[in-house]
Write a structure and sequence with these properties.
heterodimer, A: 115 residues, mainly beta, seven-stranded mixed β-sheet, globular, B: 115 residues, six-stranded mixed β-sheet, four-stranded antiparallel β-sheet, 12 strands
């Protein structure tokens, strides 16, 4: 079965650079969530989209922005990167026939390292 | 607002022994409850969830959890663990009502199964 795809899997950037993380949800899923997991920490919710509109906002810094496109894939744009942005970024999708089970399916994550 | 407390950051246990990973939550509204497992360098995989109905929930890999509303707990159990169960386990909650559907995670419990 198709899963959530995230790209790239690994990304190395320097301070003050920008980065774009991509998430491709499971086909027919209309909702995407972004989470940030710092080293040794629990995942923290950043932002979510439903039907291409922002549906909820968590602890996303102002330097970050995100959107969901017409094909339901989502991109997380990160600017003025800081050392503290080094983390594993997860995308999760929800919807389709599994909506009633209220399950979010997680991708493998993008590991961002800021030097 | 919701919060999740996982009292044990690490749980060492011998192979074939039983294990219980504790999870307590706090919320002003009704919640759904989840347990996720994260193997090294991998994404989050759903173990089990409680949405409604029977308070004893069975999941994958022989795990089960019991929802106790009066104690606001959702402890995870397995009667006999294997080496392959070594991983990080996260308890999570989600607002049952419409509105924020993002997950709030606990800080995680690292289960270390020893031979």
């Amino acid at each position: 079965a198709a899963g959530v795809i995230q790209s790239p899997r690994h990304l190395i950037k320097e301070k003050r650079e920008t980065a774009t993380l991509k998430c491709y949800p499971i086909p027919r899923h209309d909702t995407v969530y972004w989470y940030q997991q710092g080293p040794g920490q629990d995942p923290q919710f950043l932002i979510s989209f439903y039907e291409k509109m922002q549906s909820d906002k968590g602890s996303i810094p102002d330097r970050f922005s995100a959107q969901q496109f017409s094909d339901y894939h989502s991109e997380l744009n990160m600017s003025s990167l800081e050392l503290g942005d080094s983390a594993l970024y997860f995308c999760a999708s929800r919807g389709g026939g599994t909506r009633r089970f209220d399950e979010q399916f997680f991708g493998p994550g993008t590991r961002l390292t800021v030097l | 607002a919701q919060s999740v407390t996982q009292l044990d950051s690490q749980v060492p246990v011998f192979e074939e022994a039983p294990v219980e990973l504790r999870c307590n939550y706090s919320s002003s509204v009704s919640v759904y409850l989840f347990w996720y497992v994260q193997y090294p360098n991998q994404g989050l995989q759903l173990l089990l969830k409680y949405l409604s109905g029977s308070t004893l929930v069975k999941g994958i890999n022989g795990f089960e959890a019991e929802f106790n509303k009066s104690q606001t707990s959702f402890h995870l159990r397995k009667p006999s663990v294997h080496i392959s169960d070594t991983a990080e386990y996260f308890c999570a909650v989600r607002n049952r009502d419409t509105g924020r559907r993002a997950l709030t995670f606990g800080s995680g419990t690292r289960l270390q199964v020893q031979p």
